């Protein structure tokens, strides 16, 4: 049986999505310069994906937490004038809030369910067409029932995650053959339901009733806040929707880890993301 290929070029069931030990720092001089330039823009948008970018992967999707320094750097950035900060995720809004600890009223925008949910009015209004309707909910309910039966009866080692707009089959840590079979059969179930969007992520198959995309949500936020420079960090297929939409000369798009990408720059891991955020925050501080 051929193994399900991951967006980062690995095969399903492997638990390490990273490139190995890193020496520290951001070796790419061009990226460092781009961050300094973005940091001095009149209006800055800094947005980052969550899993695999700000939080290391875990077999248990609810056990992940942001890497040390990540939230601190985002909070400092959000406190600077003319600076908008957003956390953007395939997680649903409630889960993103729980896992990041970002409280209601904090000046960090949360964008969940790949853009279908947000704490920001402008994003919600721009993404209204992608919000989950009663009809979508009925579709999700019947899809969830079928996928739950499939996983319980045929692939009990796989995990299930219930989200506001999707049901997700998790295969991290499983042997490739078991993971491939679970993913292939879940995909078959989804394909029998017109209107269901199938997303193959890293050791996950997400079956969604929303057609939101992160690119539309992030660019809507940038527009609403008058951002003249936009910075985005992402690691997975759904982040490519942002990379392909952010192509102005002032934009800084950063792919985290391996795999083909439309991003302009690349860093190795979550700690490099924190370093980049700290550089941006330093560039944003008023001169003494
Ligand atoms: O858009 P993101 O914030 O990157 O979310 C993408 C998916 O992330 C989660 O799955 C990933 O992280 C899990 C926890 O480390 C891991 O077990 C799984 O293998 C990864 O694919 C989340 O569970 C999904 O719902 C998100 O869509």
Going by CATH, the homologous superfamily of the largest domain would be HAD superfamily/HAD-like
Helix content: 25-40%
Gyration radius, in Å = 19 Å
Distance between the termini: 62 Å
CATH class type of the largest domain: Alpha Beta
**Cross-sheet strand order for the largest sheet:** 4-3-2-1-9-10-11
**What structural class is derived from the secondary structure elements?**
alpha/beta
Strand segment count: 11
| Mean pLDDT over the full residue set | 92
* Level-2 CATH architecture of the largest domain: 3-Layer(aba) Sandwich
Q: Helix and strand succession?
A: HEHEHEEHHEEHEEHEHEEH
Q: Could you characterize what this model shows?
A:
The structure is a single chain. This protein has two domains: 29-129 and 213-284, HAD superfamily/HAD-like (Rossmann fold); 134-208, 2-Layer Sandwich (Alpha-Beta Plaits). It has nine helices and eleven strands. The protein is an alpha/beta fold and 288 residues long. Mean pLDDT is 92; it is low at 1-21. The longest helix is centred in the middle third of the chain and has 21 residues, at 134-154. Helix 8 (240-243) links the parallel strand 9 and strand 10 (252-256). Helices cover 35% and strands 18% of the residues. The protein has a seven-stranded mixed β-sheet, sandwiched between helices. Strands 5-6-8-7 form a four-stranded antiparallel β-sheet, covered by helices on one side. The radius of gyration is 19 Å and the shape is globular. Bound molecules: the ligand O=P(O)(O)OC[C@H]1O[C@H](O[C@H]2O[C@H](CO)[C@@H](O)[C@H](O)[C@H]2O)[C@H](O)[C@@H](O)[C@@H]1O.
């Amino acid at each position: 049986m051929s193994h399900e290929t991951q967006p980062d070029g690995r095969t399903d069931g492997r638990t390490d999505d990273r490139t190995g030990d890193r020496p520290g720092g951001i070796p790419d001089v061009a990226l460092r310069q781009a961050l300094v330039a973005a940091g001095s823009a009149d209006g800055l948008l800094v947005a980052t994906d969550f899993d695999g970018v700000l939080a290391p992967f875990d077999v248990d999707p609810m056990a992940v937490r942001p890497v040390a320094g990540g939230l601190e750097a985002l909070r400092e950035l959000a406190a600077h004038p003319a600076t908008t900060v957003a956390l953007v995720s395939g997680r649903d809004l409630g889960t993103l809030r729980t896992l990041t600890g970002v409280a209601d009223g904090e000046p960090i925008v949360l964008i969940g369910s790949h853009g279908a949910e947000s704490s920001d009015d402008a994003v919600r209004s721009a993404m209204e067409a992608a919000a989950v309707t009663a009809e979508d909910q009925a579709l999700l309910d019947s899809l969830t029932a079928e996928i739950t039966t499939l996983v319980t009866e045929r692939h009990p080692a796989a995990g299930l995650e219930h989200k506001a707009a999707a049901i997700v089959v998790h295969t991290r840590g499983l042997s490739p053959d078991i993971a491939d079979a679970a993913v292939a059969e879940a995909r078959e179930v989804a394909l029998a339901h017109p209107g269901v969007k199938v997303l193959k992520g890293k050791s996950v198959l997400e079956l969604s009733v929303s057609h939101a995309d992160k690119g539309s949500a992030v660019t809507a936020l940038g527009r609403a806040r008058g951002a003249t420079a936009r910075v985005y960090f992402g690691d997975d297929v759904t982040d490519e929707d942002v990379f392909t939409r952010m192509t102005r000369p002032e934009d800084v798009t950063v792919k985290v880890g391996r795999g083909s990408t439309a991003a302009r720059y690349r860093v190795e891991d979550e700690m490099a993301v924190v370093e980049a955020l700290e550089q941006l925050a330093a560039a944003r501080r008023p001169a003494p």
